[in-house]
Design goal:
single chain, 13-stranded mixed β-sheet, Immunoglobulin-like
C-alpha cells in the first residue's frame, strides 16, 4: 500500500511538472515585408493560442530586419466595440501584448475605438499615433475579428529589444472582450499582469 502511494505521488508530480511547462513559440523571419490587409501565411497548428470553449484567440508573430509583425484572430460571440480613449482602452475590446527579455520590458495595448485606432504602451506610459512606429488594421470576421499590427523596429519602444536569429523573450497576451464597448465583460486568455509568460524565439 505504501509503495502504491509513493508511485501515485511520483506520477502526480510528473504530471504537475509537465503541465506547467510553457512551450516555446517561434517567430519566423519573412523574406519580404508583410502588408496590412493582405493574407499573411499563418498556420493554425503553429499559433500561440488560448481558448475557453469556442471563445479565445490565435496569435502569430513574424519579423524581418525592419519590422515585427503580429496577427491575432479573436473568436468571440460578442460584438466588437470600444468607446474608451487612450490609456483607458483596456476596458473594452482590445489586445495587450507584452514581451520582456529580463532587461527590457514593454506592453502594447491596441484597439479600434469609436475615435479610431488607439495604441498605448506601458514601459513607459505613452500614446502612439497610428503610422508613427506602429501600423494597425482590425476587421470584423465571421468568427469575431482579426487584427494585424506592424511594429517598426526603429521605434524606441521596439528598438530596445536586440532582435536577431536565436534571440528570445518572454511573451504574454491578453484579449479584453466587451459586450457593449463600455465595460470589459471578460478576459480571453488570462490576466497578463499575473506574470505568466511563454518563450518567444526569433528564428530564420
Amino acid at each position: 500500500m505504501k509503495l502504491k502511494s509513493m508511485l501515485l505521488v511520483g506520477v502526480l508530480s510528473l504530471v504537475l511538472i509537465f503541465s506547467s511547462v510553457a512551450f516555446a513559440y517561434e517567430a519566423q523571419k519573412v523574406s519580404a515585408p508583410l502588408a496590412l490587409g493582405q493574407e499573411w501565411k499563418v498556420d493554425p497548428d503553429m499559433a500561440y493560442s488560448a481558448f475557453s470553449g469556442d471563445n479565445g484567440w490565435n496569435v502569430w508573430v513574424f519579423w524581418d530586419d525592419n519590422n515585427v509583425y503580429l496577427q491575432y484572430d479573436v473568436y468571440t460571440d460578442l460584438p466588437m466595440g470600444n468607446n474608451h480613449d487612450e490609456h483607458a482602452i483596456w476596458n473594452a475590446d482590445s489586445i495587450e501584448w507584452e514581451i520582456t527579455d529580463g532587461l527590457n520590458k514593454e506592453k502594447w495595448i491596441v484597439a479600434l475605438t469609436s475615435k479610431g485606432y488607439q495604441i498605448v504602451t506601458r514601459q513607459p506610459r505613452t500614446i502612439i499615433k497610428p503610422g508613427e512606429g506602429v501600423d494597425v488594421l482590425i476587421k470584423e470576421t465571421d468568427f469575431g475579428y482579426r487584427g494585424q499590427i506592424i511594429f517598426d523596429r526603429s521605434h524606441p519602444h521596439m528598438a530596445k529589444f536586440p532582435i536577431e536569429v536565436g534571440y528570445s523573450v518572454d511573451m504574454a497576451v491578453q484579449v479584453n472582450d466587451s459586450k457593449d464597448g463600455n465595460d470589459r465583460t471578460r478576459i480571453l486568455g488570462g490576466f497578463i499582469d499575473a506574470g505568466k509568460y511563454s518563450e518567444l524565439i526569433f528564428v530564420d
